[in-house]
Specification:
Blueprint (H helix, E strand, L loop, with lengths): L8 H14 L3 H6 L2 H8 L5 H19 L7 H5 L6 H12 L8 H9 L8 H11 L5 H14 L18 H4 L1
Length: 173
């Protein structure tokens, strides 16, 4: 998750495949020289900052969590490079616990259709969590992302093909 900001999913997948093929544990990553780690993740946006955060994150996991990723939202937020979106996604995908990550697609879609009116992802997340039952958070996250990528794109939303355009605030205005 630390690698995902400002980078495509495809690029993250390529980099993680290379990195984890060789270094599969926090202990192995913590031993890496920061410059070597930078070379391993080169190609993702902000790779120098991310290398520094990954190294620190690995050290924190070893020192504070016995090398294991915590499964509590507040503990995840303490990890270097992990924000609210990442913490929610880690809970939902990694631990099958309720989590509703708000990325650019989710933020754009739910504000555009009028589900929430929020200026930043955190307020969008909190607004959605009030509206959506907890057991549907993870599924909702994935549906909003898919809708944002395939139909409700940033520049040319496919309003005529959208199955919810009758409910959409953008269309109704």
């Amino acid at each position: 998750m630390v690698l995902s900001a400002q980078t495509t999913d495809n690029q993250v997948n390529n980099v993680t495949a290379r990195l984890f093929k060789k270094y599969r544990t926090p202990e192995k990553i913590a031993e890496l020289d920061e410059k070597e780690l930078e070379q391993m993740i080169y190609g993702v946006g902000l790779y120098r900052t991310k290398a520094r955060n990954i190294k620190k994150l690995s050290q924190v996991l070893i020192e504070d969590y016995q090398g294991k990723v915590p499964d509590v939202f507040e503990e995840l937020l303490k990890l270097p490079g992990v924000g609210r979106k990442s913490a929610n996604v880690i809970l939902a995908v990694g631990f099958n616990k309720p989590g509703l990550g708000v990325d650019t697609h989710v933020h754009r879609v739910v504000n555009r259709i009028g589900m929430v009116k929020a200026k930043n992802p955190e307020k969008t997340e909190l607004g959605l969590k009030e509206l959506i039952p907890m057991e549907l958070w993870s599924e909702s996250h994935h549906l909003f992302i898919s809708h944002g990528r395939k139909v409700c794109s940033a520049r040319n939303p496919g309003c005529s093909e959208c199955i919810i355009n009758g409910l959409c605030a953008r269309i109704m205005d």
